[in-house]
Amino acid sequence: MKQKKILAVTGIRSEYDIIYPVLKELQESDNFDLKVVVTGAHLSDWHGFTVNKIREDGFEIVEQIDYLLMTNRKTQRSKGTGLLIEGLTQTVERVGPDFLIFVGDREESIATCVVGNYMEVLVAHIGGGDPVYGNSDDPIRMACSKLAHIHFAFADEYAKNLEKLGEERYRICVTGNPALNNLIETKILDRKFLSEYLDMDIENNDYIVVLKHPMSSEMQDSYKQMKATMKAVSEFSANNKMKVIGIYPNTDPGSYDVLKAIDENCNDNIRFYKTLNRDIFVNIMRNAKALVGNSSMGILEAPFYKLPVVNVGNRQKGRLNAGNVEFVNYDKQEILDSISKACFDNEYRDYVSNLDNPYGDGFAHKRIVEFLGSIDTSDEKWYTKKKLV
User: Fold this and answer.
1) Is this model's pTM higher than 0.90 or not?
2) What are the mean pLDDT values of the chain's consecutive 10-residue runs (389 residues total)?
3) Is 56 exposed, middle or buried (0-12, 13-18, 19+ CB in 10 A)?
4) Same-domain pairing of 171 and 200
5) Is there a single domain that holds both residue 57 and residue 135?
6) In what order do the strands lie in the sheet with 270-273?
7) DSSP H or E run through 150
8) 278 with 146, same domain?
């Protein structure tokens, strides 16, 4: 049987961790020929130059498209998307894939959809139908849901949203979140090893994790918002003799302001890292007392860890969550109280530990690959949408 050519596009560590189990499953299958385009923050030293991790994982990188402008202005993303469309067009013409596959809602997402549609290549979208609001990524995700030919939804509720958008049911496969497989497969590392790796004593101290990104719709408040968060985290750390482990924000406008607030509040007990390898990060999350910030990880993956989450601000509102997330405003005392509840309220922690995870069982990657394998790429029904509204 002729192998189907898959071209995956990845631009940032967070979505690469979601798509990684899918790429691994595709690579191990005799039915697919997988190649990868690496772009965005993966090519940024500021974010740990994570293209090296993709290379270490053994995937064939056929193109590195450098579009990240990092001007800290709203113009950077639209200009960058134009550069990415130009570069990806040339790559698709050269490689000639049967499918383009990507995760989520960032520049590489909409660029992949535009290129796939104009060049008549089937586009597979992982994570569509997810109704978050308040950020520019959110309407982009819905636009991708209309432009993509194949949808891998994380939950039944999101599949129903795709149908409401007019997407035919045969295009939709409910898979769960592929990233959960990372949590199952990653070996357990003891806290002594993690302490040595991080150069921070978390063997003898409890800790919380901070993952906080700017919101494009609230860019002008990025510094003030992160300052309020960090002041609360710093006070909590000092009062409770607890460590804090954080990771740098994404590349969105406002990220410089977030970093400024981080730098002003770091000390021996509060450390932020450009990036962390998957095995280190998974084990850090396994042992954390709580997650603070506004990362999608609090929604999509934290329930698997049975981890309480303090979501600060509007980012992630609207998403299906297991009940482990408490949303708070940018008020220091409100944030402090919520972190204390997450770490020390035993009744609440017991409640979180017994919640069901709405995002699957850790085998989404197998469902995705099986579905791609079942598609007849010669059938016109996959290319032409009969129901656009």
Assistant:
1) no
2) 94 93 98 97 89 96 90 80 96 98 92 97 95 73 94 96 95 97 94 96 97 87 94 96 94 87 91 93 96 94 95 90 95 97 98 94 96 97 87
3) exposed
4) no
5) yes
6) 270-273, 243-247, 207-211, 291-293, 309-312, 325-328
7) strand 150-153
8) no
